[in-house]
Structures are given as C-alpha cells and as structure tokens.
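Hi U.,

Before I forget, here's the chain from the pilot set. I'm dumping it here mostly so it's searchable later in email.
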Amino acid sequence: MPFRCAVLDDYQNVATTIADWSPLGDRVEVVAFTEHFGTEDELALALADFDCAVTLRERVAFPASLLDRLPRLKLLIASGMRNTVIDYAAARANGVTVCGTQSSSTPPVELTWALLLGLARGLVQESTALREGGPWQSTIGADLHGRRLGLLGLGKIGSLVARVGQAFGMEVSAWSQNLGKERADEVGVRLAGSKEELLAESDFVSVHLALSDRTRGLLGPAELALLKPTAYLVNTSRAAIVDQDALLAALHEGRIAGAGLDVFDTEPLPTDHPLRTAPRLLATPHLGYVSRTNYEHYYGQTVENIQAFLTGSPVRVLGAG
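Structure:
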C-alpha cells in the first residue's frame, strides 16, 4: 500500500505542479484538495485514509480532538517554521511527526504596500470607473511623502515595511509591548511613547504583530476612535488583533478614511459576511504569503520532508521539545 499524502486547501490547484514531486516516485500517492474543509468532522472523514497531511500556514487547526481521530496519520507538514494551531503535544502522543518549511517575509511586506497604495490612491475605485465608463477622476489621492506611518510591531516584516516607508519619504514610528529604543534606532524609526500616541499621530497604521493573549483585540473601539478621520489602517498580520465589529462600525460611520485587510476571523470569508460589502474597505483573500517563490519553497520542501521521513530521518521537525 502506498504512503498516501493529502494536500489541503490547494485553492489554485498548483501544489502538484509548482514543485517537482517525481523524487517520491510510486512510493507516495498525492491527493490535492482544492476545497476547504470547514469542520473537524469533514477533516476527520477526508483524512481518515491518509498517512500524511500538508497544510498551508494556519488555515487548518490540528487540535488533539482531530489528531485523536486520525490513527493512520504519521506525518503533518506545515508551511513555515511556526504554527500556532497545531497541538504538538497531541501530535507526539499520537505518533505524528510535524515538519515545517522555509517561508519568506518579503511577500507579506509587498502585499502590505499593495493594500496601502491601493487605498491611498483609490486604485480600485478609479480602475473600475475607467473600465465601466464612470467618472474620469473621482478621488483625490492621499500623499505618502511627509506623512506618518505607524507600525504596530517591528519584527522581520515590520522592519521591512518601515524601510519601504522611508524610501517614500514617510516619517515612520513604531510601537509594541516589547519594543525598545535600541531596536527602533537600529531600524531608523521613532519609538512611539505608547500605542495610543502612535494611533493618534499616524496617517497610516499597519499591523505586524504575532497573535497572542496580549495582542488579541489590541485594537478595539477605544483604540480605533483615536485614529484620525483621514487615517488608513492595514492589517496583513492576524485578524483577531483588530476588533472586527469595531472596525466595521468605523468604516460605516466614516470615522476613518479606509482599511486594507488580508486576514479574517473566518477563512474563506462567508459569502454573506458584512466585510464583503463594507464601505472604504480594500480586502484580499489572505494573499500575504501567496507568491510563486513561497509556494516553490513550501511544496518543494514538502517533498524533501516526505523523503526524509520515509528514510527514518525527518528534517525541519517542529515542536520536538
């Protein structure tokens, strides 16, 4: 019986062609699923006859309750070297090896700027009007040069976003609970005195924090109320950092100029979700990491991970401690 591998959430149907799976030969049967399994019961049924599951980023949670229902599963491969929705202790208890892959920080940086620039210059509205015979020039763009970019988080992604902002001639400031002046000086940005100060003074705010108990709901009604009515908010990090209902209210009431989102509480976003019709919103379907280079790394190293596992010497093992 061949070793069976399930590739989850292959929305673009590219997982088996963007990398070379031929080294696995006839030893491995690969099945790609292009539709998302929305419930644990659906996942348990779909994965019951597989030895390996490949999951993208944190789209699918693997809690103990699911892993306990998959006695055949022996290998779980996640894209990236960090995954907060896999129960590593439960994986070990069930004899499941968890491996990761390389993941680049630059694609989410680039998407952050795509959203920010799209908002600032009204690109979707203007392009749609041009194609559909609407008004010729209906918006007045927001300038970047000389404006304040406020970054919540100054890690790998945040620091790269800062560098681009500086290239545009923006004044860049940053804040996070653990950020010190030494790190801010190293990146060449101003350390904001507080989260509230950063929100109140910024013309553009971009979120680049990891989701944790401390950052969940970090931007709620009180925080969003501090933003200027001309300010834009971009979140390509984690949806739960920004209170969704508070953001919807701010957008509908015109209390901020606009928002750019690439992450959502529920993914894929339901067709009747209020964010799909919210005004002043530029939204993309979690494309931050979706780039050719990243996918080549994800699936190319997935093949390597499977090869190594089958020889008894797994590589890039996660949660081994």
